[in-house]
Amino acid sequence: MANNQYKADIGLEVHVELATRSKMFCSCAVVDPISAPPNTAVCPVCCGMPGVLPVINRNAVELAIKAGLALNCQIAETSIFARKNYFYPDLPKGYQISQYEYPLAYDGFMLIRTSQGEKRIRVRRAHLEEDTGKLTHMNENGETYSLVNLNRAGVPLLEIVSEPDMHTVEEVLAYSHELRLLLRWLGVSSGDMEKGSMRFEANLSMRPVDCEELGTRVEVKNLNSFRAMELAILYQMKMQEETLSRGGKVEQQTLGWSEANNKTVVQRSKEDANDYRYFPEPDLPPLVVDSPWLQAVKASMPEMPAAKRARYAGEMGLNGEDIERLVEEKENVRFFEDCLAAAPALNPKTIVNWMLTDLFAWLNINGKAIDTVDPKLFVQLVEAVDEGVINQSTGKEVLVEMLESGKTPSAIIEAKGLHQISDNSLITSLVSSVLQANPKEVQSYLAGKETLANWLFGQVMREAQGKANPQVVKTELQRQLDAMK
Ligand code: ADP
Ligand code: MG
Ligand code: ZN
Predict the structure, then answer these.
(1) 266 with 357, same domain?
(2) Which ligand lies nearest the alpha carbon of 124?
(3) pTM of the entire predicted model
(4) Which of 217, 268, 274 has most ligand 1 atoms within 8 Å of CB, for mutation?
(5) Which residues of 424-442 are buried (b: 16+ CB within 10 A; e: fewer)?
(6) What's the domain range around 346?
(7) What is the pLDDT of residues 162-206, one digit of tens each?
(8) Is residue 269 located within the same domain as residue 316?
(9) Residue 1 falls within a domain, yes or no?
(10) What is the pLDDT of residue 1?
(11) What does the pLDDT look like over 444-480, one tens digit per residue?
């Protein structure tokens, strides 16, 4: 099969659960899908009892507006909820309330960064809807049945639909990672994929590279991890390319991803496509987001990751990898900026180095979050090293003790007498006594075994109990050795 004869067009539909306390149209709590006992967060509204009325969750609307703004979308002044009718046991009402013709947000885009540079992926729409319940399929001694848990029924969802602007797995992963980052940044969603808070559907078609028109697409549902999405897309690209290159036609289908078999499985073909008989939800008024409300939400938006990245790279000269490690968690950024504010004289790079290496290592080992650390104490430590009060390796020890005890760095340095010895006369006499005590090594060094200089350096540092300024020791040692030549 010739390579690069075909190219892929990929569009994503992403469902995210909004981080509200209550459900989309009732006051039931949104509960943890794993720990909460089944069917304990339910009421007549989300169970679809006759005669009840839904009420729109204002907070869900605000989170959706934030997401829409972050995706550079237009926010509709008036959007309309609609009924999407279908029959399934996880859907107690027999329909899902969604938005159809008039979504809340539309015509946006997201910039993604790839090895080929920056790319713009258009976002067609982002609309509000409600989640379904959850079925658990059981099989006991050959008897099969399903359990229905309605805790999730009615949880607010935002569905974000892209245009088919992605062409490679790399682009799909860049888009979905960046989307998750933005949603978490804004507190719109936990983005917790293991708990189903973020779920992907990939639409994929292939066409000859010189063809303008998009090919026939398949839709792969239930992609619950980046890995599953990557595997499913690669699998479908291969399948479709094979079909097309032997002159076959791709059938429009809805597929699922089988984790167990590492392949896509057919769920529905075009013939039995659902007809959802959408119509405007008669129990809800149009959703009106007037200008004052929109402005208020806009004003509450924090500085976005793109602006942080530009500032950290430009003004501070941080490298790309460090910047991503900061920006991936909003708490990291908050801590970093609190440090900058507490120690404006320090070089931001020095703060970042201590933060991403020693501090993160300690947090990792101890299973602690960064917001348990006091940024003011932390920068005191970085300053102590920066100003030469203690040396680098003593700094690492003081850091750990500071994190464990909560004592200030200066108290620890004082109590243990860890002040660095930069006093030249003291270091001069330390070096000469070490050289006198090790005549054999000095002779070998002078005879050409240069590596012994490092060993002698180590002896001096040990004599000084690690407290000597290493730079001063190095210079003095070299001076005395040179004098013997
Ligand atoms: P539906 O609502 O039936 O799923 P849409 O036309 O609204 O269909 O498209 C859903 C998703 O499919 C969008 O993300 C869109 O970008 C993508 N898509 C549409 N046509 C194609 C195609 N030919 N190839 C790849 N993706 C496509
Ligand atoms: Mg679809
Ligand atoms: Zn309810």
Answers:
(1) no
(2) 1
(3) 0.86
(4) 217
(5) eeebbebbeebbeebeebb
(6) 303-416
(7) 999 999 999 999 999 999 999 999 999 999 999 999 999 999 999
(8) no
(9) no
(10) 43
(11) 999 999 899 999 999 988 888 777 888 888 889 999 9
